[in-house]
Amino acid sequence: MSVFFRLSVSFLALLLTSAASAASQFELTNTQARATFPMAETAAVYTTITNHSDQPVILVRASVREDLAAQVQIHSTVMQDGMMKMRQLKDGITVAPGESVAMQSGGTHFMLTGLVSGLEAGSAFPMTLYFSDGSEQKVTVPVVNASEKMHHHHGNHH
């Protein structure tokens, strides 16, 4: 084997190890969306993000297919002047090293806006999360009945 070939193989192995390491730094659990009525224009998605790295990480945005919704925003629900209001978190969410952030009803969550059609219980859709370190995390979001308690589903993540 040539030196160039051995260096190329070593470099490729290093890149793959780094990519696998970055992907394993984040764990997504309890991922789900609530079913909506057919003409709904928005829907909420919930998940728990765990940062297994030794550095803080910022979830900066998320996306879904255009045939599902126009955009995904990160929202927080806050009490203001005696009323619950939703605010878009344009700077994202910071997850401290070794910590988890639960995105849940009544708190921080993803808001799908511009839904093409409602979300039907029993269906699922892919969503991609983007982090400040340039990494991406794909997850499958199961859709559950809004009247059901939020169950502990594990989203598929790679």
Provide mean pLDDT, rounded.
82
Q: What is Rg?
A: 18 Å
Largest sheet: 10 strands, mixed
Order of helices and strands: HEEEEEEEEEE
Which blocks of ≥5 consecutive residues have pLDDT under 50?
3-23, 150-158
Number of strands: 10
Beta-strand percentage? Answer: over 45%
- Assign the structural class, choosing from mainly alpha, mainly beta, alpha/beta, alpha+beta, or little secondary structure: mainly beta
What is the helical fraction, as a range of percent? 10-25%
Give the CA-CA distance, first to last residue: 33 Å
Coarse morphology: globular
Figure out the total of helices: 1
Structure summary:
The protein has 158 residues and is mostly beta strands. The protein has one helix and ten strands. Strand 9 and strand 10 form a beta hairpin.
Q: What do you see in this structure?
A:
The protein is mostly beta strands and about 160 residues long. Helices cover about 15% and strands about 45% of the residues. It is built from one helix and ten strands. It has one helix at about 5-25, and strands spanning about 25-35, 40-50, 55-65, 70-80, 85-90, 95, 100-105, 110-115, 125-130, 135-145. Strands 1, 2, 3, 4, 5, 6, 7, 8, 9 and 10 form a ten-stranded mixed beta sheet that branches. The chain is globular.
